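PROTEIN–LIGAND DATA SHEET

This sheet pairs a single protein chain with one bound small molecule, adenosine-5'-triphosphate, given as SMILES. Inputs appear in the order they were entered. The predicted three-dimensional arrangement of chain and ligand is reported afterwards as a token string under its own label.
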Amino acid sequence: MKQLKKMKSFLSISWKASPSYIILLLVNALLESARIVVNIILPKYLIDELLGNKDPQMLLILGSAIVLSNVIFKLIENIMKKQLTIGRIKLEEKMSQIMANKIMNVDFSYLENPYYLDLKERAVFAINNQLALENIIVGITNTIRDLITIISLLIILFSLSWVLVVFLLLTIGLNLWIYSSFANYQQEFFQSIIPINRKYGYYMGLGFQDKPQKDIRLYNMGQMLTQRVIEYNKDLMDEFQVFYNRLGKIEGLYNVINVLQASIAYGYVGLRVISDKFGPNISIGSFTMYVNAAINFSQTTTKLGENITLTFQMLQYLDPFMEFISLPETKEYSGNLKMEDEIKSISFKNVSFKYPGSDKYVLEDISFDIKGGEKISIVGLNGAGKTTLIKLLCRLYEPDSGEIFVNGHNIYDYEYESYMGKIAVIFQDYKLFAFTVGENISCNEGYKEDKKIMDLIEEVGLKEKIDSLPNGLDSLMGKAYDDKGIELSGGESQKIAIARALYKDAPLIILDEPTSALDPLAEAEIYEHFNTLVKGKTAIYISHRMSSSVFCDRILLIEDGKVVDYDSHANLMEKKDSLYYKLFTTQAKNYQLDIA
Ligand SMILES: Nc1ncnc2c1ncn2[C@@H]1O[C@H](COP(=O)(O)OP(=O)(O)OP(=O)(O)O)[C@@H](O)[C@H]1O
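PREDICTION REPORTED AS:
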């Protein structure tokens, strides 16, 4: 039942993705069945005519009908083949798009949860490596074709004897029962190998990724990884050995039943030619037709079994895909208020939060207010909860309790796009993409080199660099797709990320460790111009470089997920026993900052 439900939802996704392809598949299945049936029925009349009246005109008509119908079937088959290949490629492409869209829109919390990250990997693996989509479609259409063929053959055989048909139906029932009990075992088997498969996929995946390669080489971990892959591969092979042994036995039993079924059918048809004990004698033409029907019946039921097994196996492979695409999307939690262009206030009211699957509160009963236009620095030790606080403000996670208000409204009352449009964030792990420098800053493919972008380039200290590039702002970032692409240093990339955030011109700008990769001169320059850079915007700033706090109106001090202080730099420096004083003075010694 569970399998049928899964198949139904897979088919409904496929139907939505490409209805024309599904229709084409069904038409193809019908045509294939029709070809088999026509080639069983027409020869009967030709043979009877040959052995009976021998009317030349009739013989010509029947002979031509057989040849012509086969030519037509062949022609249609060739046309369909091409259309089906194109349709299949298109459907696969659409399914990949569905997956990519899902990853881009799924509630963000899933993308930081190891279970769902693994699910995503397995879903992508099933589509790309196991050809699950292609095989399941083949499996389902062939199953439909086999069922239509079997029904047509049963109708032909019914004209010979209903007892024979009942017998054949019973054998089919027996075969399907054998396969359905195997399908249950198959489901349990694939569930049971998930843990090994995940481990195998993880270690194998490390070998394919480029990012881990530096560490793998420097710490000589290649051998260790290969060993793990070999171990898990062996475990998997052992499990599959058991599975295929059992499958072999089932297929053997299935074939025995099929041979028995065919022998009885042939025997019965033969008896009807030589004796009238079981019914009236039949002609040689009818004999050929019924024998052909019996042969095809036996072959088709064998194929039906194989196709059902293939379909269920592929359904198992597609499980992660089906589970992943049914996850809720971020926009589903959205209100419909339009966010204003100006930030008047931000309030955290008794906000507590723990990451999904964790018992530990990362933020506990956090309350503070930010006035519009204020520059706030959030300071705290590693793991204090600073970035998490920003993630909540950006609606990447929802608080477990408490509320966050912007301009007096709960942030979830705002329409998702409208709210996100008013926030520009540079995260610690920001990403630039293989677009041109200009496109990376403007996030717009059709951008024009305008004054705004040129001013920003100058303000973040990138003018000289951009001027030195032969293609300036049109230089492609990275060499992934073009040898002429440019590779920027960590600091230069960070400046582009800062320019991108500023270009968005959002009233709230959040910078999480925005200068960590900058050299001291560039950092000092950014700080110096910081207020000019962010202009009248409300700005939240997280940095371990304490000197940045001096430029801010207030400093929010977080310790172990709680607010321990919220005041100006000058006032906090009065509290000589506070964490802020300790952090500032310790760094000041190293950086020779003024302890004011
Ligand atoms: N996706 C996650 N799932 C589970 N726990 C997480 C996740 N992200 C962060 N944490 C945990 O939450 C705590 C706070 O992390 P957060 O990144 O907010 O700290 P931070 O103050 O920004 O630290 P840092 O200064 O090192 O950047 C840490 O203990 C961290 O291990």
